[in-house]
Design brief:
The protein is of the alpha+beta class. The chain has 9 helices and 5 strands; from the N terminus they run H-H-H-H-H-H-H-E-E-H-E-H-E-E.
Length: 236
């Protein structure tokens, strides 16, 4: 009927235009809220997902916080459907596993940049402070990563013997220490430095190199080696 607006047709036309844009310019050519808007198409066939995308980003502040949210929290805070909340949980897990496949054993980790990216993969999703020992062979290839401690939101206790046991278990020639600061600070604490030096002293006696200690906070990291906070083995 003339003068009446078919809402379904409006959404269909807009969505097709968005798909055409994506095919023409690739997903990298879209803004974050537009990517989220399109993702929401699959669980919201008739809803204005542009408005919903903006609402979700405003509510959670970032994609990281949004996709880390629990299903119940999404339903409660954002009033999204159960299907949408479950869909987000699935996407989040697929992302985690996709990133995990990039870091299969025998991946070479021979720089602080590569080590930092790997440690972000291990730790950026953690809500509590965790400590990893990353074991490498003589060619700096990844053997395994051992989670040796899980603490609270602001501390974790690390025992040197657990680090030694992990290094020996995987026959590591060198290791990288890694832990996170869930509070967001990338500044190493006095305890971080002292723990690192103590571990270096012990592993030096069994000829295993501590190549670095990476601290992760949010989407960032620092290398204690690059910052000059790890002494040369000859000095300890």
């Amino acid at each position: 009927m003339r003068g009446c607006v078919n809402e379904k047709s409006i959404h269909t036309g807009h969505r097709q235009r968005m798909r055409d844009r994506l095919k023409k310019s690739s997903a990298q050519g879209l803004e974050t809220h537009e990517l989220l808007e399109m993702l929401l198409y699959y669980t919201n066939p008739r809803k204005n997902t542009n408005e919903l995308a903006h609402k979700l980003i405003n509510e959670y502040g970032s994609l990281e916080m949004l996709f880390d949210a629990e299903i119940a929290d999404l339903e409660r805070r954002s009033e999204v459907s159960e299907s949408t909340a479950v869909f987000f949980a699935l996407v989040s897990e697929f992302i985690r596993r996709y990133n995990g496949e990039k870091w299969k054993p025998r991946k070479v980790i021979d720089s602080s940049d590569i080590a930092g990216e790997y440690c972000k993969f291990l730790l950026s999703y953690e809500k509590r402070e965790c400590f990893y020992v990353i074991c490498l062979d003589s060619q700096c290839k990844l053997i395994s990563s051992a989670l040796i401690s899980i603490g609270t939101v602001n501390e974790t206790h690390v025992y040197t013997r657990n680090v030694v046991e992990s290094a020996l278990k995987f026959n590591a020639r060198s290791i990288i220490l890694a832990h996170n600061h869930p509070g967001g600070s990338l500044v190493p604490t006095t305890s971080d430095v002292e723990t690192t030096i103590n571990i270096i002293k012990v592993l030096n006696m069994i000829d295993i190199l501590v190549a670095d200690h990476i601290i992760v906070a949010g989407n960032g990291y620092i290398s204690m080696s690059d910052k000059g906070l790890i002494r040369n083995l000859d000095d300890v």
